[in-house]
Amino acid sequence: xTGGTRTGIGWDSHRLTPGAPLILGGVTLTHPDGLGLxxxxxxxxxxHAVIDALxxxxxxxxxxxxxxxxxxxxRGADSLALLRESVVRAAAVGWRPVHIDTTVMMERxxxxxxxxxxxxxxxxxxxxxxxxVNIKASTGEGIGFVGREEGVAALAVVTVTPxx
Length: 164
Ligand code: MG
What we know:
Elements: E1 6-18, E2 22-24, E3 27-29, E4 35-38, H1 45-57, H2 63-66, H3 79-92, E5 95-105, H4 115-126, E6 133-138, H5 144-147, E7 151-162
Parallel strand pairs: 5-6
Antiparallel strand pairs: 1-4, 1-7, 2-3, 5-7
Bound molecules: magnesium ion.
């Protein structure tokens, strides 16, 4: 059935490591201790959560099936490009995103000054207005892997509607 809307949820986490870039929503941030995210692609944990939520809403499985981390083609991949490709794949089965909400769980740095640009880049990648994408920030309050700055996590919910 294709009427109405569907929602998908996405979750991802990546390890923080010295010297790696810290890219979230296509924006490179600077960590006060020089930490960044480790991964096969550019390790953009926020964009990965959005991709998984979109694929979930479209009934297309998950990011690992579409862009396997065993594939050299995706080494260092620009995650926004993978998101754009996910939009194409969702459209091919009849769904387009209409709204995205996200939460980034990260101790430092503060997201505040970067949030507007991250939102614009995600919105542009999926063909939405900035106001149809939301980014929330949450810390680990010093506990757990987020609080100890061992990693960064992100959650996303994507709503899709049938392609007209
Ligand atoms: Mg990932």
